[in-house]
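Consider the tokenized backbone below.
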């Protein structure tokens, strides 16, 4: 998923960013949808296929320029890679939207409040590690979070699921020990 948990940080960061178990279910449902639909495998196959096409285009561009100029410029091979990146990043964004939608379905099946998916993705948007700065979105494998939140809002509105109040206390109590252990691990790691 888009939430990268950096290797040098504790793994409770995402948990701490959520207010209740429905929000966590939104993130887990999204990731589970990637797994169920074999998105990584499908993306790998698409990447390989498009890479072969991209290499062919790069070779063709190199050959055409060499024929016209008499100079073989191997840098033109990169043009094919650029094409591959453009094509496959759009495919990745489509898979992310699919996982968002299926994640909502999984939430409903588990009797979690779907509207909490919106709050979960808003929490991701405010998370510096996720990437608040929109750097060259065209190359990103994930759609803009604002677009995803809009889609979630529309889907939740269509779902007709009743709005119920979610008490955050049980979630916080359940995770309290994990936060304490994580803090201790961080302190131990920084004292060495």
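A designed sequence for it:
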């Amino acid at each position: 998923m888009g939430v990268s948990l950096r290797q040098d940080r504790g793994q409770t960061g995402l948990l701490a960013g959520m207010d209740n178990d429905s929000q966590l279910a939104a993130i887990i449902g999204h990731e589970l949808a990637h797994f169920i639909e074999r998105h990584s495998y499908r993306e790998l196959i698409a990447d390989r296929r498009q890479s072969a096409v991209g290499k062919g285009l790069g070779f063709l561009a190199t050959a055409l320029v060499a024929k016209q100029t008499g100079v073989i410029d191997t840098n033109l091979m990169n043009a094919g890679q650029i094409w591959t990146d453009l094509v496959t990043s759009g495919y990745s964004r489509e898979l992310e939207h699919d996982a968002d939608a299926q994640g909502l379905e999984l939430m409903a099946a588990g009797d979690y409040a779907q509207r909490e998916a919106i709050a979960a993705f808003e929490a991701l948007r405010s998370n510096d590690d996720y990437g608040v700065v929109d750097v060259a979105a065209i190359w990103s494998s994930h759609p803009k979070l604002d677009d995803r939140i809009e889609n979630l809002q529309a889907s939740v509105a269509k779902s007709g699921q009743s709005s119920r109040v979610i008490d955050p206390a049980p979630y916080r109590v359940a995770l309290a020990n994990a936060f304490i252990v994580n803090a201790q691990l961080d302190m131990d790691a920084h004292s060495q």
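Residues 1-10, 130-136 have pLDDT under 50 and may be disordered.
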